[in-house]
Write a structure and sequence with these properties.
The structure is a homotetramer. By secondary structure, chain A is an all-alpha fold. The first copy, chain A, has six helices and no strands. Chain A has helices at residues 7-20, 29-45, 52-55, 60-84, 88-102, 105-108. Chains in contact: A-B, A-C, A-D, B-C, B-D, C-D. Chains C and D meet through helix 1, helix 2, helix 3, helix 4 and helix 5 of C and helix 1, helix 2, helix 3, helix 4 and helix 5 of D.
Chain lengths: 125, 125, 125, 125
């Protein structure tokens, strides 16, 4: 039954997990942001030598490994959010609204975003 | 009313957002994993020159910026999960169970993990 | 005249640059490793929405921006190496020898490396 | 004898290494930028749970592992530069000159840079 699985409950379980092991001292926002970036790189590593097409057709065994990296990223993200007192879902919904204004459907449709802040080819979303 | 805010609803809204702009062609797992890693680095960048203590006492204006980066990471994480057909919450709860077995409270309590795969000082969680 | 441009001279100039500004306190290996990862992500960001083919045919203006990101990565890499007392060139030549034994031409030729430590599709080099 | 070890020679050897294995098809700038970011994260991972002080006093065994990660970053950086036709040392010396104008000693001395592009606490260098 999936209903019981919420990001808030994950955040609570991760907090209890860390508290039980007295890891609070290691879980500064600085360290957790590093750990999150490391896990995001491990997730990306699965795709680095694949063609875009291959990346969209992973064998089941590889997909299971990718799922574990996605799990690590989410776990560190909710832990960092918890330590900072930030609600990640509220922040994400608010950001989506900002993006919706920033990239009106009419202008963005079907086209890669050419302009960007910092001159980089940044895609909205 | 926060109740309506779930990771599944965020995933649906992000999908609609991308579909409305016909960005599907850009959203290969390979590209989304890159975008996720880039956003994780932008989040980390806020902490790179801070002491651990400073990172735990952000001024309100900086915290608002950090919240937006957390939002970007979560948005790309749910989008990548959606494209791959992976349930990020199920994966995270499963990973927590694995970690609980891997790092029994008695052994892990209060101590940084010394051993690690790849010889790196990897912290569980 | 390019002859005078060596990685050792770059390392000396970066050290003088940091010393003149009394930035030594900020340049712990931990902080420099974070800064290096952030710059590597900024470099990667230029390629995140491009096809592999587009990434190999950058317009001149984009290539100039990429060159600046490559510069940032190299500057932080030589600074981190300097602070740690590691010779990056010696380390790189030593690593190439290790890789040459690890990936004999006969076996590696023309094929993406399938096996990997950590189950990820890791390419040698 | 260290004299023979230059970044140009490293670039030549890496090119021969990749050519001998016919890895050119994998070495698009997009893929190499990903691999570089992954290696930068592996380097950073060594420091993620250390205090700034611990990161400056690595045991010899850990320092050897860090040296290998520095090697991987440099190898991918010179390979990416080679594929793009960018001279990394020239780019780095040019960037240092830009930074010297941007952060005059008088203003930057002893103080962390407060302002930043993108509102992040960005350190010059």
């Amino acid at each position: 039954m999936r209903g019981g699985r919420t990001i808030e409950r994950l955040q609570d379980e991760v907090r209890r997990f860390a508290d039980a092991r007295a890891w609070g001292e290691f879980h500064t926002p600085k360290n957790l942001a590093m750990a999150l970036a490391v896990e995001a790189a491990e997730l990306m590593e699965h795709f680095q030598w694949l063609t875009p097409g291959e990346s969209a057709a992973l064998p089941a065994s590889r997909k299971r490994e990718v799922a574990q990296e996605i799990a690590d990223v989410l776990i560190y993200l909710v832990r960092l959010s918890d330590v900072l007192g930030i609600d990640p879902l509220s922040a994400a919904f608010a950001k989506l609204s900002v993006n919706a204004r920033k990239y009106p459907v009419a202008r963005a449709r079907g086209s890669a975003v050419k302009y960007s802040r910092r001159g980089r080819g940044r895609h909205p979303l």
